[in-house]
Amino acid sequence: MILADNTEDYILLNQLAQGSEYAFQVIFEKYRNHLYNVAISYVKSPYVAEEIIQDSFMKLWINRAEAKNIRSVEAWLHTVVKNLTFNRLKKIAFDLKRKEPLTNQAIKSGDSSDTRILEEENNWLLQHAVKQLSSQQKKVFFLAKEEGLTYQKIGEQLHLSPLTVKKHMSRALISLRTFLKNYDKKFIIILLLTSLFF
User: Fold this and answer.
1) Which of 23, 160, 166, 191 is in Cβ range 3.0-4.6 Å of 16 for a Cys bridge?
2) What is the pLDDT of residue 33?
């Protein structure tokens, strides 16, 4: 049997190997925030990062019988998080690459069904981009995009000054540009972020 790097983890891992939900909860609380920061530094989306953390701890629970053989639970979880993160990024990249021929065809043909596919892809990507915005940025973004409200009107609805609304919108657009740029979708960036608000 391999001894864990510190006594507390050694005890927790042995309890976890016996099926202790309490030990699992303590490990979760101890390492969750650090691992979340690792995941979000790669995926830039709180929603996706949270899914990765849940999947990582689920893997620890499923493999709990072998927990006593883990030397460093932090290093073990860190490796799992990185692997799941890279797998998620590869899947997103693959999905986008697979959709690219359909997108290019839609742009060239201008056919109504192809245009619909392009719009669906744009909406799908935009939804994922919007998920990583703060709560206030989401409100401002949707009021501007969906309702077509001015900064003045949005400010009245949210009890904010027009200048504060403008700051939230500016930060939201910067975040969206950064997110979308990672997928090399320049035409989507131009379509969604220049024509909608400027």
Assistant:
1) 23
2) 92
For tokens 């510190």, name the residue: 6
Classify residue 124: in a domain, yes or no.
Answer: no
Angle between helices 73-109 and 46-62 (to 10 degrees): 130
Helix, strand, coil distribution of the chain in percent, nearest 5: 80, 0, 20
Answer yes or no: pTM beyond 0.85. no
Q: What DSSP character marks residue 183? A: T
How far apart are alpha carbons 197 and 148 in whole angstroms? 9
Q: Tokens 């892809």 sit at which residue?
A: 121
Based on the domain organization, do 141 and 78 belong to the same domain? no
Q: Express each pLDDT in 101-131 by its tens digit.
A: 555 555 455 555 555 555 666 666 777 777 7
> Token pair for residue 141?
């973004």
Contact, 1 vs 71, CB < 8 A? no
Mean pLDDT (the chain) is 76
Q: Domain for residue 59, yes or no?
A: yes
* CB 1, CB 68: distance < 8 Å: yes
For residue 30, the surrounding DSSP H or E stretch is helix 21-43
Overall average pLDDT of the 33-49 stretch: 86
Q: What is the CATH number of the domain that holds 139?
A: 1.10.10
Q: In whole angstroms, what separates CA 29 from the centre of its chain? A: 21
Tell me the residue range of the domain where 71 lies. Answer: 7-89
Does any domain span residue 165?
A: yes
